[in-house]
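=== RUN LOG ===
request id: a7f3
mode: sequence -> structure
chains: 1
length: 425
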Amino acid sequence: MRNKLITIIFIFIFLYPFYASGQKLVNSPYARFNIGLLEPAGSFRSMGMGGIGISLRDNNSVCFSNPASYSSIDTNSFVFDFGLDYGMNLLSDGESRHFSDDMNFDHLLMGFPVTKRLGVALGIVPLSNGYYKISETVLEGDPGYDPLTGEYTSNHAGEGGMTHFFLGTGVNITRNLSLGVNMTILFGQITRNNQYIFADYYNVFHNNNTERLHLNGINFDYGVQYAATIKKDYFFNAGASFTSEKYYKSNYENLSVRYTAYSTKDTLVYTADSTKALLPGTLRLGISFGKKNKFTAGIDYITSGWSKAIIHGSEGFLADTKSILFGVEIIPDKFSNYSFIKRIEYRLGGHIEDNYLILNGEQIKEYGMSFGLGLPMPRSLSKANLFFDFTRKSGSAANLHTENYFTMGISLNLYDFWFLKQKFN
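=== RESULT ===
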């Protein structure tokens, strides 16, 4: 057991620098605002079911959306889950299209029991992604052309994002009731650059503006689950989790300079602010029902008060969010000795959401559907989880484009019995 533990810790430490330094380079102009695009929260099992997870209790997965679920981890077991995803984004404004794609690490998760009634989990998951690249050239005769300004090219780029590290525990209070809490550490930085280059390159000043937003701090997620047996092998679960609003340490810098082709540079504006940033509270509710080792169906409702958030540079762009997530998992015959196809876990789901971004007075809308597979490994409770998700972001107001976002992910969910004493040498 000790050698296995050392191996897993080594893998966790080895993969973390790649996770922390990597960024999903999928271009989305919507990432230009607030803290970037909010990433969906959940394991890849959850993602294949539309993102549900508030009421799920799984003995060989880490369902970190509700820390009360950690009490369901099997005694004497250890769960390790790491995954990567591949994203593609097709932008369209009705006249032109742009395609971008990238692959990156998505998450690192661990879970293990402390006692028969208490489990612990930890991991690192993305919160937001601030990557984008936008370029526009205005020539004489274009709608935005001004003779006083002349022809010019504007380049806008962003990078970075926000990340959550969590450590939590869940405990069975009674046979049916479980409580849990996560401590979450938020950290990350987003950098945005806006550059204006004029056609009369050698005879005018050009402008460059750089913004940097850094956030860090600690918050807590609280969860509760009620699990009931309806009749033999049939179950009904209800869950809720809550994250309170929180002021985080915030460092914001804004630097505007003008320069010439001959390297002459003047600072136009420089501001630095170290006041707090307020991120909103989130309420999550969910129910699920099914038959043990046969099927699971569930629905989640999530709401968050982003309009009350205080983020440097985001005034007027924040809106409250509401999300409905739903999904189902079917296993034809989990214990089949002859058919691998029957042992596969088949998942299907969907989601309808209000994005937290408001532009031109209109809140961006999202809707999508997902499909997933759980591929069991031979003679083990470990499995490979795959999911595919299609999400569309759009608005009906003028100058709002549509994004068709495709995501594919694969994770290894490793399960083993770690704390059993050997009876024979």
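=== NOTES ===
Residues 2-417 form a domain with the Porin fold (CATH 2.40.160.60).
The helical segments are 2-21, 44-47, 340-343.
=== END ===
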